[in-house]
Backbone:
């Protein structure tokens, strides 16, 4: 019985760092396009999402397991929470291995080609967040 009472408290404790950082407002005036976000998620040259995450699309034969399974992530996280994790997931987990897709703060050992540039543009972040928000109920 006591374990059930602790579960909401633990969930809140894990949510506090994100709330303390503040959730980013939309990065662009244009809303995210889920279809473009899906295409970017599947682009193994740009985003590499499927290298680390399962649950993004059923067509990926061997999804990664380094990051959390994203099945139903649209049920668990709001659009601003998804955006925060894409912009810079270190705001939620300072020890994450997920790269900051739209932040240059505190980076080291960045290749010359990528210095001063984010991995994804503001609109691309919005597109991917919009796609992830569609992943509800354990299906695409």
Residues:
């Amino acid at each position: 019985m006591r374990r059930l009472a602790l579960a909401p408290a633990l969930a809140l404790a894990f949510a506090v760092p994100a709330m303390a950082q503040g959730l980013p407002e939309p990065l662009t005036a244009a809303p995210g396009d889920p279809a473009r976000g899906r295409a970017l998620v599947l682009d193994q040259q740009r985003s590499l999402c499927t290298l680390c995450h399962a649950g993004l699309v059923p067509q990926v034969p061997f999804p990664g397991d380094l990051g959390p399974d994203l099945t139903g992530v649209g049920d668990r996280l709001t659009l601003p929470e998804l955006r925060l994790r894409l912009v810079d997931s270190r705001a939620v987990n300072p020890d994450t291995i997920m790269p900051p897709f739209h932040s240059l703060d505190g980076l080291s050992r960045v290749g010359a080609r990528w210095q001063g540039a984010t991995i994804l543009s503001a609109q691309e972040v919005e597109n991917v967040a919009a796609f992830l928000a569609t992943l509800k109920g354990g299906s695409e």
Observations:
- Residues 1-20 have pLDDT under 50 and may be disordered.
